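Handout, section B. The chain below has 208 residues.
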Amino acid sequence: LSDEKLEITSENLVKIANNSRPELKYAQKQIELAQKKEKSVIKDITPRLNLFGSYGGGGATYQSESYNNYGSYQVGAMLSTPWINPVIVHKKLEEAKFAKNYEQANALEMAYNTYLEIQESHISYSTEIKNIEKCKKTLEKAQKVLKIFKKMYADGEDCYIHVGEFTCIVFEAKINYYNALYKLNSAKAAMDKAVGKIITKEDIITNL
């Protein structure tokens, strides 16, 4: 187990998750496809402007020092409207809009749940960091006091009662520390799961 503590914000975690969670990428892709389908339906019923041009040669005359070519040019534009059934078109538009709204709603719900999971895991991880720091300080303090009483007992300045007492205190402090260490690593694992990858210091630097 590691007691390494990562200084990271929930905003950084969201950035990592956006690139790591396949569900978020898939949801965004589905939104884009639904939007394209809606645009395609609209395009099919939109009048089109067609441009055209032509050239034709009408004949030629010859003179002693000249040549004349009688040609004709024709340029124009035509607005064409596809034949549409209003009922079918309305149905297709409604279906396309529903599909787009459905995918957007799913994506928003997924994003909300993911970001909520990230926020909760970050709060838990931050809490366990504070807890293990507190347990570590308590253990170090108890070990220092035990060391003092052991020296005093060795020098004949104190009885063994205090040594035994603080030996138990140190033992209890160690148990608390290792429990805190386990909780810290569990919280880190939950945070990794929330963002979709094992978070390292390099990820923190990259996503600042």
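Note. The mean pLDDT is 78. Compare this with the example in section A.
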